[in-house]
Amino acid sequence: MKYLKPKAAASASLLVACLVAGSGCSSTTTDSATTAQTATAESTLPQPPVAKKVPKELTTHGHTRIDNYYWLNQREDPEVIAYLNAENDYTKQVLGHTEELQQKLYDEIVGRIKQNDETVPYKDNGYWYFVRYEEGKEYPIYARKKESREAKDEVMLNANERAAGKKYYAAAGLSVSPNNQLLAFGEDTVSRRQYTIRFKNLQTGELLPDAIPNTTGGAVWANDNKTVYYSVKDPALRSFKIFRHTLGTPASQDKEVFHEADETFSTYVFKTKSDKYIIIGSHSTMAQEYRYLDANNPNGGFKVIQPRERGLEYSVDHFGDNFYIVTNKDGATNFKLMQTPVTKTGKENWKEVIPHRQDVLLEGIEIFKDYLALQERKDGLTQIRIKGWKDAKTDYYINFEEEAYTAYIGNNPDFDSKELRFGYTSLTTPYSTYDYNIQTKERELLKRDEVVGDFDPNNYEAKRMYATADDGTKIPVSLVYRKGLTLDGNNPTLLYAYGSYGNSMNPSFSSVRLSLLDRGFVYAIAHIRGGQEMGRQWYEDGKMLKKKNTFTDFIDASEFLIEQKYTNPDKLFAMGGSAGGLLMGAVINMRPELYKGVIAAVPFVDVVTTMLDTSIPLTTGEFDEWGNPANKEYYDYMLSYSPYDNVEAKAYPNMLVTTGLHDSQVQYWEPAKWVAKLREIKTDDNMLLLHTNMEAGHGGASGRFQRYKETALQYAFLLNLLEQQNQ
């Protein structure tokens, strides 16, 4: 089926266009019998809404851009809501014939999930803590057991009960007081990630009257069991202040203990594993700063560990008489571990524990009484290293045998433990939880996520390959598919990537993905620059004035899959979300002919306008990621790749764009404007669909299962394109 461009469908879409444009329509428009007959014939085809154009001049550095769809940034405007609903209706019409397939996909995906399930308990302060799920329920139940794993469950918070009657619900930041009697937790019922902190008496079940609005969700307990610290958000949703609250008093009387005045930093608060110190952190892309307070003295003053310096990054933990610092000090690009006495915390007192290595990224540490566990990354893969404090001979890596996998340090709250809790997964191995005995080097599999049905990992094959970028850089690509694949260049392939903020896209298992693999798809992850898979420099080479490396790496990975006979442009699909949605927008402007279809989820596509508007959430904190367009050099560079600004009159792939009305990370109007502009300018008849979740934000629908409705829609979009091609 061909889908008419808005310009060619004016007659058939007249009513919708007039409604969305908010203007009257002249009666002479339909006077012609010929026009009426054409409209009747064309009305059998779904017609897209046509957003009205209201030119707005945006001038920066003497350069003027015209934004015809700027008006869409008014969330409360009924006309905006009408337009988004019209787009949703259009998407539903175009994909209406796939509703049965969508339901089948949804049933498949949900059918693989074990309904009655629970996480592996971990022990903390005399209790075993875990999360339980019950059949048919959308939300988790947070529970604990006293002393023994076999003891009776004690439900701390049943999110199903708290979510009753709400369109959206998320609980976050659950924290139990040192005496085990009180629970603090955050609740978001809008999906803007603005949480109200509440408190519950775990002995009586009583919900206390204390309620603290507009927080990040977490509360940190002082050791007196009545004082908590928390962070609040400014109008741009930046976490900018830390307050102290005493139970039983109004939140309006809470005392401000720290104000992060620098808009390029955000602030947060946490407690050290030792429970000795409360730490306030300030974070930007290029620098961090920490303050500490004895948790036994909640009314005391915080002391700075090391004042912020641009380019000096560090993180803090505590053990014994020392703070342990993971830092890039003195050019340690991949970070090193240092220690310093609690009484002398300045960087001049830091002493090296684990040196910097050019080929190994130090991602994090876990401190125990007798040993240290380090999470590292080498050649794109995670590693776990064990090192004894006193025994120099205890220094080794846990062995993992798969070609592409992910290992990570789990929850280890007990300093005295001789066992390390770690997680493991791969493209063919479901998430697995292990306890590893440091002394015997034996591992015990505590749980492997069950895939309900006839799943057999031996039916699938995973590979790690390398594409070569134009500048000679080797780009890792992880692939998974059903065994027996023929390399004839004719396999449908979905290529996914992110490539920003130093976030590494690890090869991990997804039971959801099986619905594609079992239908013949190859699933591939391009580990492009902008992530941190190959070390810190990998990130540095994919941001700021090197951001285009991210996009060209993805294109090179796409061409590599075609050259290696995995697929061809008629069966290659691309997908990315958020900053990965920016990737999708940039790539289709650069090489649209490479892809049959593209899924751009909550895409960050109006880069210049957003980064110029410091009132938008996250903008000021991201100047060191993208650059500050108030500087002409960065303005010009952003303008050269910003997807919205670079839409051209040419053919684009079939596209499904998704967003959430209450998105706090990427505002809904970015994808809405982008789709409207693409409709106006592009020259093809390919599908262009916008789906807005009117009740959710950046993470989509809340609940355990409802989120997969959108996944089913995305997969049906892909499969429908394949079916059309085969007809």
TrEMBL record:
Keyword Thylakoid in record: no
Residue intervals of the Peptidase S9 prolyl oligopeptidase catalytic domain: 508-723
Residue runs in coiled coils: none
SUPFAM superfamilies assigned: alpha/beta-Hydrolases (SSF53474), Peptidase/esterase 'gauge' domain (SSF50993)
InterPro entries in the cross-refs: AB_hydrolase_fold (IPR029058), Pept_S9_AS (IPR002471), Pept_S9A_N (IPR023302), Peptidase_S9_cat (IPR001375), Peptidase_S9A (IPR002470), Serine_Peptidase_S9A (IPR051543)
Keyword flag Ribonucleoprotein: no
Alphabetized GO MF terms: serine-type endopeptidase activity
Keywords assigned: Hydrolase, Protease, Serine protease, Signal
Gene3D superfamilies: alpha/beta hydrolase, Prolyl oligopeptidase, N-terminal domain
Domain Peptidase S9A N-terminal positions: 48-448
GO biological processes: proteolysis
Segment forming the signal sequence: 1-23
Described function: Cleaves peptide bonds on the C-terminal side of prolyl residues within peptides that are up to approximately 30 amino acids long. Has an absolute requirement for an X-Pro bond in the trans configuration immediately preceding the Pro-Y scissible bond.
Family assignment from sequence similarity: Belongs to the peptidase S9A family.
Descriptive protein name: Proline-specific endopeptidase
